[in-house]
Amino acid sequence: MKKVALIFLVIIGCVLNAFGQEEKTESYNRIVTHEETGQKMLEGPVTLDGFSKIEDYYSYYEDEYNSYLPNIDTLRPVISDIVTSRITLILGTWCIDSKQQVPRFIKILDKLNYPKENLTIIAVNRDLNDGNDSGFIKNYNLKRIPTMIFYSRWENEIGRIVESPDNKLETDMLRIFN
After folding, report:
1. Strand-pair category, 86-91 with 119-123
2. What is the pTM of this model?
3. Could you give the domains of the chain?
């Protein structure tokens, strides 16, 4: 009887967890339309799968991701620091710099086997707003996008890449983590 009760509790827990996950993913990948241009864009929290929802952005994303050849050897001295860090990536699916730099950045993270659960992605509109009335995005003090913010494992900000790297993404990341 105890085994049946235990199995029942496990099943109930799994079902409740599944409902919680469904609820969470519904708040991600919100598509909005710019009033003046009619252009569709993502706004708010985004998953990597969300990029495919905006055709214009995704075509750039695929091309850049597939053609970029990251130089992982450059990052070899700091790989362990990178994969234990937390990263916040803020982008605009309407922004040409985001269309170019974000796929390259994601490819670097993929090559490093960076844990995606440590990556937060937020899409902003043309006003650099995430569509959240709380003003949450203002805490990031954005000037331009994309902005890649790197945090130590102790949650301290250790550096940013803003708009475009000074040299290459890999060398900028090496400078931040070195």
Report:
1. parallel
2. 0.82
3. 29-177 (3.40.30.10)
Name the residue type at position 99. K
Number of H helices, E strands in the chain: 6, 6
Q: What's the rounded Cα separation, in Å, for the pair 45 and 25?
A: 10
Gap between the Cα atoms of 97 and 75, Å rounded: 22
Sequence letter at residue 107: K
| Long-range interactions of 24-29: CB distance < 8 A, separation 24+ | 29/53
* Per-residue H/E/C for 12-74: HHHHHHHHHHHHHHHCCCEEEECCCCCCEEEEEEECHHHHHHCHHHHHHHHHHHHHCCCCHHH
Q: Could you read off the pLDDT of 115-137 as tens digits, one per residue?
A: 999 999 999 999 898 888 777 78
Query: Tokens at residue 162, please?
Result: 């803003």
User: CA 155 to CA 88: how far, in whole Å?
Assistant: 11
Which tens digits make up the pLDDT trace of 68-93? 999 999 999 999 999 999 999 999 99
